[in-house]
C-alpha cells in the first residue's frame, strides 16, 4: 500500500513538472522573449521601432525618467538615438530626460553618469518629495491609517512611483510626447512594478528582454560598465533605501532569466515563479470589467 502511495506521489510530481514546463514555454512566448539575440541588431531594431512609432503617432517627443539604473540608462539612450534618427530624416523630434528624485537619492552620481552617457536633448529635474509627502499627509488627514510604519512606507513608495508617472505625463502633455516605459521581461514576469506607476507608459522599448539582455544592449551601446553591471533596485522605500530587487523578489535575476530563456531551474523555483506570474496577471492586463 505504501509503495502504491509512493508511486502515485511520484507520478503526480512528474505530471506537475510537465505542466510547469508547458507553462514556462507559454510564458516565454507571452512575454515575447527570444532566448538568443544579437545585441547590436536589437539596438537597431528597437531604435527603428521608436522612430517609426513617433512618426506613425504624429507625436513630437519622447519622455523618460532616468534613475541611474541600467534599464532607464539603456531605454534613455535608445530614445535619444531614435529622435536623432528622426531629425536626420527631417522629422521634428526631441527627447526629454527627467530626473525625478525623492529629495536626494543615494545613487545620484549614477544618475549623472547615465545622463552624461545618454546625452539627452533636454533634462528636466523635478523633486517628487513635496508632492508625494503632501498627498500622504492629506490622506492621513482624511482618515487613512496604517498598520505600522513599514506599511506606511510601502504605500508611500507606490505613491512615489505614481508621482513619477504624473510628472512624465505632464511633460508629455506639454510637448506632444510619448512616455517611454522601461518594463522588460524579468519585471513583467514577476509583476515587479507599481501598477499605473512605473508600469504606465505609452511605449515600452525593452519589452521581451531578460535582465541580462538589457545589460548586453547597454554594453553594445557603450554605457559605463558600472551602470551596465549595477545591482538593480526599485529604491522606493524611505526606511530602507536602495534594497536589491533580488532581496525583495526572493529570486536572483539569474534564476528569473533562466526561467525566461527556458533553461533548467529547480522545480520549486519554477513552480513559485509561475505562481507569481499568475498572481500578477492583473498588472499586465486592462482593468477587470463586468
Ligand atoms: N487579482 C487582481 N485583480 C485585479 N487587481 C488586483 C488583483 N490583485 C491585486 N490587485 C490590485 O493591484 C493593486 C496593487 O498593485 P500595486 O499598487 O502595483 O502594488 P504592489 O504590487 O503591492 O506593490 C508594487 C511592488 O512592485 C515593486 N516595484 C515597484 C516599482 C518599481 C519597481 C522596480 O523594480 O523598480 C518595483 C515594489 O517594490 C512592490 O513590491 C491593488 O489595488 C490591488 O487591489
Ligand atoms: N529617481 C528616479 N528618477 C527618475 N526616474 C526614476 C527614478 N526612479 C525610478 N524611475 C523610473 O522608474 C523606472 C523603473 O525603475 P527601475 O528600478 O525598474 O528601473 P531602473 O532604475 O532604470 O533599473 P534597475 O531596475 O536596474 O534599477 C526607471 O527605469 C525610471 O524610468
Ligand atoms: Mg532602479
TrEMBL record:
Listed GO MF terms: NAD+ synthase activity
Class of the enzyme per the UniProt entry, highest EC level: ligase
Residues that coordinate or bind Mg(2+): 71, 187
Ranges where the NAD/GMP synthase domain occurs: 43-287
Keywords: ATP-binding, Ligase, Magnesium, Metal-binding, NAD, Nucleotide-binding
Sequence positions that bind deamido-NAD(+): 162, 195, 202, 282-283
Any Pfam family hit: NAD_synthase
The reaction(s) this protein catalyses: deamido-NAD(+) + NH4(+) + ATP = AMP + diphosphate + NAD(+) + H(+)
Domain of life where this protein originates: Bacteria
Enzyme Commission code(s) on record: 6.3.1.5
SUPFAM superfamilies in the record: Adenine nucleotide alpha hydrolases-like
Binding site for ATP: 65-72, 182, 211, 233
InterPro entries: NAD/GMP_synthase, NAD_synthase, NH(3)-dep_NAD(+)_synth, Rossmann-like_a/b/a_fold
Pathway membership, UniProt: Cofactor biosynthesis; NAD(+) biosynthesis; NAD(+) from deamido-NAD(+) (ammonia route): step 1/1
Function description: Catalyzes the ATP-dependent amidation of deamido-NAD to form NAD. Uses ammonia as a nitrogen source.
Family designation: Belongs to the NAD synthetase family.
Assembly and binders: Homodimer.
Protein name: NH(3)-dependent NAD(+) synthetase
Naturally occurring in which organism (per UniProt): Vreelandella lionensis
